[in-house]
Design goal:
Elements: H1 3-15, E1 22-26, H2 38-46, E2 54-60, E3 63-68, H3 82-91, E4 111-116, H4 120-133, E5 142-146
Antiparallel strand pairs: 1-2, 1-5, 2-3, 3-4
Helix pairs in contact: 1-4, 3-4
Length: 147
Protein backbone atom coordinates (compact mmCIF):
# COMPACT_ATOMS: atom_id res chain seq x y z
CA UNK A 1 0.00 0.00 0.00
CA UNK A 2 1.12 3.55 -0.62
CA UNK A 3 0.74 6.51 1.78
CA UNK A 4 -2.74 7.43 0.53
CA UNK A 5 -4.02 3.88 0.91
CA UNK A 6 -2.53 3.67 4.40
CA UNK A 7 -4.17 6.93 5.41
CA UNK A 8 -7.57 5.69 4.21
CA UNK A 9 -7.18 2.33 5.96
CA UNK A 10 -6.03 3.87 9.25
CA UNK A 11 -8.84 6.47 9.20
CA UNK A 12 -11.41 3.72 8.63
CA UNK A 13 -10.04 1.59 11.48
CA UNK A 14 -9.90 4.55 13.89
CA UNK A 15 -13.43 5.72 13.09
CA UNK A 16 -14.68 2.21 13.91
CA UNK A 17 -12.78 1.69 17.19
CA UNK A 18 -14.84 0.73 20.22
CA UNK A 19 -14.20 1.52 23.87
CA UNK A 20 -10.67 0.47 24.97
CA UNK A 21 -9.79 -0.82 21.49
CA UNK A 22 -6.52 0.17 19.89
CA UNK A 23 -4.65 0.08 16.61
CA UNK A 24 -0.89 -0.35 16.21
CA UNK A 25 0.76 0.51 12.91
CA UNK A 26 4.44 -0.11 12.42
CA UNK A 27 7.39 -1.78 10.88
CA UNK A 28 8.28 -5.32 11.80
CA UNK A 29 10.62 -5.37 14.79
CA UNK A 30 14.16 -5.97 13.54
CA UNK A 31 15.43 -9.44 14.28
CA UNK A 32 18.40 -9.52 16.60
CA UNK A 33 21.46 -11.19 15.11
CA UNK A 34 22.07 -14.66 16.47
CA UNK A 35 24.82 -14.38 19.10
CA UNK A 36 27.63 -16.89 18.94
CA UNK A 37 29.81 -17.96 21.81
CA UNK A 38 29.17 -17.67 25.53
CA UNK A 39 30.20 -14.02 25.98
CA UNK A 40 28.27 -12.93 22.90
CA UNK A 41 25.10 -14.53 24.29
CA UNK A 42 25.59 -12.71 27.61
CA UNK A 43 26.06 -9.37 25.86
CA UNK A 44 23.02 -10.01 23.65
CA UNK A 45 20.80 -10.49 26.72
CA UNK A 46 21.93 -7.14 28.13
CA UNK A 47 21.64 -5.11 24.91
CA UNK A 48 18.58 -3.07 23.99
CA UNK A 49 16.55 -4.03 20.92
CA UNK A 50 17.12 -2.07 17.73
CA UNK A 51 14.72 0.87 17.34
CA UNK A 52 11.86 0.71 14.85
CA UNK A 53 9.09 3.08 13.78
CA UNK A 54 5.57 2.56 15.12
CA UNK A 55 2.39 4.42 16.03
CA UNK A 56 -0.51 3.41 18.24
CA UNK A 57 -3.96 4.81 18.91
CA UNK A 58 -6.26 3.95 21.82
CA UNK A 59 -9.95 4.90 21.94
CA UNK A 60 -11.46 5.82 25.33
CA UNK A 61 -14.84 7.56 25.62
CA UNK A 62 -14.71 8.51 21.92
CA UNK A 63 -11.32 10.20 22.36
CA UNK A 64 -8.33 8.95 20.34
CA UNK A 65 -5.02 8.88 22.21
CA UNK A 66 -2.26 8.67 19.58
CA UNK A 67 1.46 8.08 20.14
CA UNK A 68 4.33 7.81 17.67
CA UNK A 69 7.95 6.67 17.92
CA UNK A 70 9.99 9.08 19.97
CA UNK A 71 13.15 10.44 18.39
CA UNK A 72 16.33 11.01 20.34
CA UNK A 73 15.43 14.74 20.43
CA UNK A 74 12.73 14.00 23.02
CA UNK A 75 14.44 11.11 24.81
CA UNK A 76 13.24 8.34 22.49
CA UNK A 77 15.26 5.73 20.65
CA UNK A 78 14.84 6.66 16.97
CA UNK A 79 17.79 8.60 15.51
CA UNK A 80 16.60 11.61 13.50
CA UNK A 81 17.93 14.99 12.46
CA UNK A 82 16.73 18.21 14.07
CA UNK A 83 14.97 18.95 10.77
CA UNK A 84 12.94 15.74 10.98
CA UNK A 85 12.05 16.47 14.61
CA UNK A 86 10.83 19.92 13.56
CA UNK A 87 8.90 18.39 10.64
CA UNK A 88 7.08 16.08 13.08
CA UNK A 89 6.23 19.09 15.23
CA UNK A 90 5.08 21.09 12.20
CA UNK A 91 2.85 18.17 11.14
CA UNK A 92 0.99 18.52 14.44
CA UNK A 93 2.62 16.09 16.88
CA UNK A 94 3.14 17.23 20.47
CA UNK A 95 6.22 16.46 22.57
CA UNK A 96 6.01 14.99 26.11
CA UNK A 97 6.61 18.43 27.68
CA UNK A 98 3.58 19.94 25.98
CA UNK A 99 0.05 20.02 27.32
CA UNK A 100 -3.24 19.31 25.61
CA UNK A 101 -6.68 20.40 26.83
CA UNK A 102 -8.12 16.91 26.30
CA UNK A 103 -5.64 14.67 28.14
CA UNK A 104 -2.26 14.58 29.89
CA UNK A 105 0.94 13.74 28.02
CA UNK A 106 2.17 10.14 27.99
CA UNK A 107 4.84 9.16 30.48
CA UNK A 108 7.05 7.76 27.71
CA UNK A 109 9.26 9.82 25.35
CA UNK A 110 6.89 9.63 22.37
CA UNK A 111 5.24 12.17 20.14
CA UNK A 112 1.54 12.28 20.97
CA UNK A 113 -1.85 13.81 20.23
CA UNK A 114 -5.40 13.45 21.53
CA UNK A 115 -8.47 14.26 19.43
CA UNK A 116 -12.17 13.37 19.37
CA UNK A 117 -12.84 10.14 17.48
CA UNK A 118 -14.82 12.19 14.96
CA UNK A 119 -11.42 13.54 13.82
CA UNK A 120 -10.00 10.10 13.00
CA UNK A 121 -8.83 11.36 9.60
CA UNK A 122 -6.54 13.88 11.33
CA UNK A 123 -4.84 11.14 13.35
CA UNK A 124 -4.51 8.95 10.25
CA UNK A 125 -2.84 11.85 8.43
CA UNK A 126 -0.50 12.49 11.38
CA UNK A 127 0.58 8.85 11.46
CA UNK A 128 1.17 8.58 7.72
CA UNK A 129 3.07 11.88 7.61
CA UNK A 130 5.22 10.78 10.55
CA UNK A 131 6.15 7.50 8.88
CA UNK A 132 7.05 9.46 5.75
CA UNK A 133 9.09 12.07 7.65
CA UNK A 134 11.12 9.34 9.34
CA UNK A 135 11.67 7.52 6.04
CA UNK A 136 9.61 4.37 6.60
CA UNK A 137 8.90 2.04 3.69
CA UNK A 138 5.09 1.94 3.46
CA UNK A 139 5.27 -1.49 1.82
CA UNK A 140 6.63 -3.00 5.06
CA UNK A 141 4.10 -1.49 7.48
CA UNK A 142 1.58 -3.66 9.28
CA UNK A 143 -1.63 -2.82 11.15
CA UNK A 144 -2.94 -4.68 14.17
CA UNK A 145 -6.22 -3.96 15.96
CA UNK A 146 -6.85 -5.26 19.46
CA UNK A 147 -8.48 -4.72 22.85
Amino acid sequence: MDATQWQERIASELADLGQQEFVVVGEPEPAAPEPTGFLARLRAKASAPAPFRWGQVLCVDEILYAEFTGTQHIGGTWPASAERHEALRAAGWLTPEETDPIAPAPSQPHYWRTVPQSEAELVARLLVEAFGILGADFATLTLRRDR
